[in-house]
Amino acid sequence: MKQCNNVSSFTEPPSALYTVLTNQNDIMLHLYNTRTKQKEPFSPLHDHNVGLYTCGPTVYNYAHIGNLRTYVFEDILRRTLKYHGYDVTHVMNITDVGHLTDDGDQGEDKMEKGAAREGKTAWEISDYYTKMFKEDMKALNILEPTIWCKATDHIPEQIAQVQTLIDKGHTYETSDGIYFDTTTIDDYGKLANLKNQDLEAGTRVDMGEKKNPHDFALWKFNKPGEKRQMEWEAFGKKGFPGWHIECSAMATKYLGNQFDIHCGGIDHIPVHHTNEIAQAESANGVKPWVKFWMHGEFLLTGSEKMAKSEGNFLRMQSLLDKHIDPLAYRYFLLQTHYRKQLTFSWEALDGAIAGLERLKRLVANIPDHAPGDPHVREEFLKAIKDDLNTPEALAVFWTELKNNRIDRDMAIEFDKILGLKLHEVKKETIEIPEEVQALLDERKVARTKKNWSESDRLRDEIATLGFTVKDTDEGQEIQK
Ligand code: AMP
Ligand code: ZN
Questions:
Q1: In a mutational test of the pocket of ligand 1, which residue from 65, 70, 113, 313 has the highest number of ligand atoms less than 8 Å from its CB?
Q2: Prediction pTM value
Q3: Distance between CA 422 and CA 227 in Å, rounded?
Q4: For ligand 1, what atom is nearest to the CA of residue 63?
């Protein structure tokens, strides 16, 4: 059986470049934990090893840039852990079976639906969209997980976990599947703070043969006479796994009965992650299954969540079609804290494109003599360690670049966390002819004297010689 591939073909910076700071006498990394509803100091369960599981894509269609926001947040987390010297085992699943169109226990399998839409097999659909997803990740400079795992490569593990739940008395069978009985545990819904009233059999939930509204399918049986492309013989019938069991089975397999961090978008809190917890804690008998649960907020278009089902989504190709650097989108995301909603607009993205260009230019032109001030590193890390506050870290970066308190090495070191490929930025070597330099000097004097008409005249004269001058906070900037 093919289980996973441990490949690292993405641009992962050499580990020697990461500074191990765990012994530094400074504040610890604090992360917001959805489980405890507060920011907490992070320390791994096992020495310097961190187990990280991030719910991956359902590969029936392209990822949209909202999905990609979640993966960028997880990448900042991964890079931050790595920067602090932790050895991270990062597991990401590929959902290629069992995720139904209503995100619950009814509806069609998204993969089979995708296959019908495109006249391909479900396996071909899965291969194609997995490949596309990996390309999006690469474009956004997201580090590749240590372990990729596909749901269909782990059917025996999922069947085994369902069997354990059956053996421990947590299940019942209906005509369409094996269900988890949420009344067999006293803390169901703790992650999402689901209240009792939410748990009552209500009108909103299509109960079918379910005993309780939050009961969910562990394993689904084929409908009578149905022939699915993805089906397995188990529990005496043909069928397929429920959506949540893959994550609890594979995370347990690769990271153990207890591990450090599990992430996803906030929509996963009330159902998918709540059900993963119910399954894993009931099957493994260890609580809490995961120490830190972390969730990224939505990317919105207008006031709506960006979603494939809403038809209001853009994907990476939509940006590439406009010749937009994917890293400008990454920079756009980093300007907002991952736990805040972010509204996408082309105007805001334009601002980020210009911002990243300017940042790169500042880094490229860091004067050779600029000293790196260790206090700046402290300030930058203080922001990152405060629950990955990238907007604040970027603000420190900007201010101190302008103050010449950051040298090139420090800029590249910060970028180990930001992932904007600043190490690729080359020093600009514009040959400025003496004649142009003389005009620039004259213009500088004119501007000091607030002689704007003379300043404009000189700019026009410089333009006739093939150079453009821009006035920035740091003075005149010249481009050919
Ligand atoms: P899916 O492929 O639908 O399972 O979603 C992949 C990831 O994207 C999950 O972690 C979702 O929580 C997340 N997600 C879905 N929609 C959005 C959105 N509009 N903004 C941010 N993350 C999202
Ligand atoms: Zn999951």
A1: 70
A2: 0.85
A3: 52
A4: 2
